[in-house]
Amino acid sequence: MRRAIVTIMMLGLFVASPTMQATQARQATPTGQPVYTIAELPDLGGDASRAFAINNMGSIIGHADDPQGRRRAVLWKDDEIIDLATLGGDHATAQNITDSGLIVGRSTVEPGGSLNDLPTHAFLWKDGQMTDLGTLGGDTSWALAANDAGQVVGASTVPGQVGDDAGTEAFLWENGQMRSLGTLGGAYSIAFSITNDGQVVGEAETATGEIHAFQWANGHMTDLGAITGTRSTAFDMNAAGQTVGLWSKVKDQNRTAMWVGPSGFDLGTQQGNFAYALDINNRGWVVGIQEGETREDQHWKSSFLWISGESWDLRTLIDGEPTWVVDGANGINEAGQIVGYGTLADHTRAFVMRPTFVVDTFHVDLCDGVAAWDAEMEPIMMRFFDALEPSGLLSGDRELTHDEWQAVFDASQEAIAALDAITPPRARKAWQAAQRQLVATIESMARSHLDDGNAAAEPSAATLVTTVIAMDRAIVSAPTCPHP
Questions:
Q1: Distance separating alpha carbons of residues 63 and 462, to the nearest angstrom
Q2: Among 6, 17, 26, 411, which lies 20 to 30 A Cα-Cα from 447?
Q3: Range of the domain at 413
Q4: Are 291 and 302 in contact (CB under 8 A)?
Q5: Is 263:213 a contact under the CB 8 Å cutoff?
Q6: pLDDT tens digit string along 1-34?
Q7: Whole-prediction pTM value?
Q8: Contact yes or no for 31/37 (Cβ under 8 A)
Q9: So what's the pLDDT on residue 333?
Q10: Pick from 361, 394, 409: which residue ends a domain?
Q11: Rounded distance, CA 461 to CA 6, Å?
């Protein structure tokens, strides 16, 4: 086992080298702390409104209650609110909007009741006309996303399992036809997002009954796994193939996640028991929600913005004295504009947050000092590897002697001291922290063998896996900086 673990760790150390990140998409990232303004969106005169998505034209969709208590799908455009009507019932909600102005959501199809206790049908709204997309044979369907080509994804109940998640399947609607995307071997799936090139992400039940994030393309559904847990969900994918969502390994707790291709890692935004990464733009900026309980058992909820390994509570980014409690950040566009809902004067209201900075011009300071940092880091790590080579630790094909473990321990301590003496630039802060964690884990491994041969004190497999995950997160989230 030690040989496999050491191999993985060494790969992590080599792959993370900044000189090997040239193919990574460049992130245009604000320096310091981003600053936003926040504005309430118009309502229909009812008790609540929520915004779920914003396109690159600045059009926003969601729902708002009217004075009669009906929930209505709405479009906010040019500072006006537009009721999108329904499919014959009293209630509807809009879930997403494309850059071409296509809007999708769900609507009740008969009067009365509420959105959650009556059957609903997925709809596509275009040029003032709402189209019923039907179902997969059950009585209920939801449209959750669309692309500019007019493909729509969501979920529908299937015959014989009315209203039961065990009989719900993800669908793709195109050219007037709805078809199931299948599952990962179980009886449940739901699609949350689709890219302009037709890639779909969501969650599905496996043959063993676990719920895993999936990516679907060209008729094939791929299990993205659950990182080191047992459950995961993919909520959105950007044009670069970065997917965001959540993962969980403990009941009643989940964490934010990002996948780049099949490789997933923890975003590290966690502050409470639950966190959800809901949307990602093509810059790699992520928004979502986190919530938990205080020591006094009081429930709290907040929203976050994640950029290149750093995360902020959105309420702390609002210019001036914040009067909002920002409960849910649901969408972000390429201009960095964020929409969601929050509490204002004891009412739930939809909002839009707009950056006070020009996002395309805020990347230079982030990378200041990277070239000098590279020059300092390379000799430190080369000395570390050179010191490990004679011990045989890198090959992992035999047990080390006491003297060899002592050499590993000494080399690790020297590398840690050297790393601690360097102040990393902001663009490499997470990378250096993860690098140090890996070296410290090797030091602990050596220490356990020098402690009267007490191999039982060696770092656990779980500790080693956590270390590798931290390395993965640092590799993917570190922005690429120009080389002089």
A1: 44
A2: 17
A3: 2-24+366-477
A4: yes
A5: no
A6: 344 444 444 444 443 443 333 323 333 444 567 8
A7: 0.76
A8: no
A9: 96
A10: 361
A11: 11
